[in-house]
Amino acid sequence: MSSVVVVGAQWGDEGKGKVVDLYAQHAQSVVRYAGGANAGHTLVVGGETLILHLIPSGILHSHVRCIIGQGTVIDPRTLCEEITALEARGISVRDRLMVAGRAHLVLPYHKELDCLREKGARAIGTTKRGIGPAYQDKAARRGIRVSDLRDPARLTQAVEDNLSYWAPIFEAGGVDVPRVADVAGEVLACAETLVPLMCDGVAWVKATQERGDHVLFEGAQGALLDVDHGTYPFVTSSSVTSGGASAACGVGPRTLDHVVGIVKAYSTRVGEGPFPTELHGEAGDQLRAWGHEYGATTGRPRRCGWLDLPALRYAIHINGIDRLAITKLDVLSELSELTVCTAYEVNGTRYEMLPSEEDLADVTPIWETVPGWKSDITACRKLEDLPKEARDYLNKIEAWVNCPMDLVSVGPDRVQTLGRLNPFSE
Ligand code: IMP
User: Fold this and answer.
1) Beta-strand (E) ranges in 219-288?
2) 42, CA 20 to 30 Å: which among 145, 173, 219, 291?
């Protein structure tokens, strides 16, 4: 048995969905532990594209049981739609998906509140999926949980109490205060589907670990968007680092055996916030076009830039990453030369690792260039098939950040993956 955590090591969109899907072939259980429908995991199976926001990608494997854990915030309607979409493709869901009763609900008006906040001066470029307001309610102890779906009267009362807090904010924003009955009605319409899936999340994960299952903990977003460790305030509202898996699922950190960090071969970010290696103008546009860098959830163009090693070293440290999976290496194939940021300079001081207390706007990246490979690598099926320059780039990344590489992705399909495909094998 072992437990492996898969985390994003940048600003999200590293390709976690594809890696979790591959790893899940060797797992018995997959646990989604953070975030909500702000995530968008794009899977390509047999040439068909599928985007999942809440249900763990592992659901595509008929032997895998999945849980959406209690550290997440669940938009009930999105979850019901995903269940329906998967079932329409012949994938059984209800016998293999559980939802932690302690997970909080994203209410329909949380999305409106998210939009209202984004209209203000302190916009951070959220996904407008209501994530921030839902976690705000949770922390303020006025949130509504999946378990509340069992009792319509209690849920309706909870909505009324909750709305009394938000009403002045709607009014100040010039928006009609939602009606309690409408909100409760919309949420309760999902109860029939979701209540049978509800379980005690801690007991579920405990049981799967005690059975000796291989368990995958599926992260969402990326380390630099973590509410504690990311580029605050331009972060999401949950603990997306590997420690979040332990805290949110109620499993001791010593039961987690490996942490795989997913790293894109370059960098992207959506929304506002510092991005020291960002490429502006034509170079950034070119990278976006090659990598099809548009948000899976919002369709927004992603900001693109070079690989940022100080940020990666930081992500490795705060997550305890012991293995790397490099994705989208093929996107760099047109370049005759690649650039990498190996360190930062801030006010005359050199930093090998992203400094949390510094203003990243003042960072001067220290660059290094390496030769590109200028050839199509999408048909490579073994690491040895890669051109020497591509292997050199990978070897250099390993050495620069002092972390071994397990896996390399050279295209969106499952077969376009090289290296160790089974994270549970020693
Ligand atoms: P929120 O999570 O929607 O509140 O958004 C907060 C910040 O996190 C924004 O910059 C979003 O663009 C970013 N974000 C949230 N989820 C994702 C994701 O799955 N991929 C990339 N960025 C994300």
Assistant:
1) 258-264, 267-269
2) 145
